[in-house]
Automatic annotation (TrEMBL):
Entry protein name: Branched-chain amino acid transport system ATP-binding protein
CDD domains recorded: ABC_TM1139_LivF_branched
Domain ABC transporter: 2-235
UniProt family annotation: Belongs to the ABC transporter superfamily.
GO terms for biological process, alphabetical: L-amino acid transport
Organism superkingdom: Bacteria
Alphabetized GO MF terms: ATP binding; ATP hydrolysis activity; branched-chain amino acid transmembrane transporter activity
Species classification: Bacteria, Bacillati, Actinomycetota, Actinomycetes, Pseudonocardiales
InterPro entries: AAA+_ATPase (IPR003593), ABC_transporter-like_ATP-bd (IPR003439), ABC_transporter-like_CS (IPR017871), BCAA_Transport_ATP-bd_LivF (IPR052156), P-loop_NTPase (IPR027417)
Keywords: Amino-acid transport, ATP-binding, Nucleotide-binding, Transport
PROSITE patterns attached to this UniProt entry: ABC_TRANSPORTER_1 (PS00211), ABC_TRANSPORTER_2 (PS50893)
SMART domains linked to this entry: AAA
Amino acid sequence: MLDVSGLVADYGAVRALDQVDLKVTRGSITAVLGANGAGKTTLLRTLSGLHRPREGSVSLDGKDITRLAPEDLVRLGVAHVPEGRGVIAELTVAENLRLGGLWRRDRRWLRTGAEEMYELFPPLADRRNQRAEALSGGERQMLAIGRALMSRPDLLLLDEPSLGLAPRVAARIVAVLRTLRAESGLTLLLVEQNAATALSVADRAVVLYLGRKVADDTADTLAADDRVRRAYLEV
Ligand code: ATP
C-alpha cells in the first residue's frame, strides 16, 4: 500500500532521515521504533505532507504522493494523529470530531461517524458536550484518534499514542487499534518510544537510529532480538 524509497529529510544542516526505505502492506500494523531524535516524528510528518523531503519518493497504491499537501493526502485517505494529541482545547468533543469529518461534506456521516467514535471510545460519549480541555490525557488521545478516523482514512499515522498515559489507559488505546485493524482493515503506522507496547500490537517493525533504518522485521523477531533491543531501543 505504502512504498517509501530513499527518503531524505533535513532541518537546515541537521539530517533527520537518511535514505529510509519502507514498505507497508494494506491492513497491517507497522511500528516505527527508535530512541529520542531517531527521526520517527519526521518520518510521519514527511508522510503526511507536513515536512518536505529533500530526496526520495513515497507512493500510495502506486500513486506518487511525495510532495502533496496535507489536505490532498487526507482526501487520498491518509490521516495523521500528531504527537501531543492535537485536539482543539476550546472546542467540545463533538465539535472536534465534526472537524475531522468536515471535508467529506457528508452531513449524515458527521452524525453517524461521531456515534461510531462514541462506541469505539465510550468515555468520549459521556463527555461529548464538554470542551476538550476538560479531558484527561487518555481521553484526549482517544479524541485525537477519533477525529482522525472521522476522515475515514485507509492509512492512519499515529505519533506516540501511549506517551504519558498510564499503562492501563495505553492498553485500552492499543486494544482499540487492534479492533480497528480487525474490523475495518485499516492500515496503521505507529511511532512509539515504548518498544514493548508497540511490538505487542504490530505485525512488523522498523527501527530508526540517527535517521537511518537499522532493522526491519516481523514484530515477533524484533521482540526476541536482544541485540537490537539493547543497541537501539534503550531497554
Ligand atoms: P522524539 O521521540 O524525540 O520525537 P524522533 O525519533 O521523533 O524523536 P525527530 O523528532 O524526527 O525524532 O527528530 C530527528 C532529528 O531532527 C533530531 O536530531 C532532532 O533534533 C531534529 N529535529 C527535529 N525537529 C526539528 C526542528 N524543527 N528543527 C531542527 N531540528 C529538528
